[in-house]
Amino acid sequence: MPFEIERKFLIKTLPENLSKYPHKDIEQGYLALDADGTVVRLRRKGDKFFETVKKGFGLVRTELEVEISGEQFEAFWPTTVGKRLEKTRYEIPGEYGTIELDIYGGRLEGVITAEVEFDSAEAANSFVPPEWFGLEVTDDLRYSNHSLALEGKPGEFLK
């Protein structure tokens, strides 16, 4: 299974002219969650649909994502009730690649995170976040998307 190497941060301030960056609305729901960190999720991103399996915690995880049909998505979507989130994802060019800025909606309104993916753990570890990034939450499970979908906002935001 392919690997995902990613760091995640809370945001202190939004970048200027945010609307100029490409963005899409995302709906995400979870089909399965296991104690070993394996999650199976459904995602609607714009007019495309995906099923993703991720395993592990922290900086390096395995990830397999496949595009599915709208019919397949709609068939499984009802099983994600109570395990969903919605967000708008902005794709912002950065020195190390694309920064994925997520502004959550619904019951998660007020949560804003940024994720940066890397080709290697060495590149991830040498990354210097831009000034507008806040606290790193890569290893804070309360800010994993599946925890946000199940538990809602963490009790106290760490800024």
Structural notes for this entry:
By secondary structure, the protein is mainly beta. The protein has a single domain (3-151), classed as Hypothetical Protein Pfu-838710-001 (Beta Barrel). It is 13% helix and 47% strand. It has three helices and nine strands; from the N terminus they run E-E-E-E-E-H-E-E-E-H-E-H. It has helices spanning 70-76, 121-126, 145-151, and strands at residues 3-11, 23-33, 39-45, 48-55, 60-68, 84-94, 97-104, 112-118, 133-136. Strands 1-5-4-3-2-6-7-8 form an eight-stranded antiparallel β-barrel. Strand 4 and strand 5 (60-68) form a beta hairpin. The termini are far apart. The mean pLDDT is 93. This is Adenylate cyclase. Residues 2-150 form the CYTH domain.
In short:
The chain is mostly beta strands and 159 residues long.
Radius of gyration: 15 Å
Give the overall average pLDDT: 93
Query: Largest sheet, order of strands side by side?
Result: 1-5-4-3-2-6-7-8
Percent helix range: 10-25%
Domain CYTH: 2-150
Protein name: Adenylate cyclase
Active site: 30 (proton acceptor)
Organism: Candidatus Uhrbacteria bacterium GW2011_GWE2_45_35
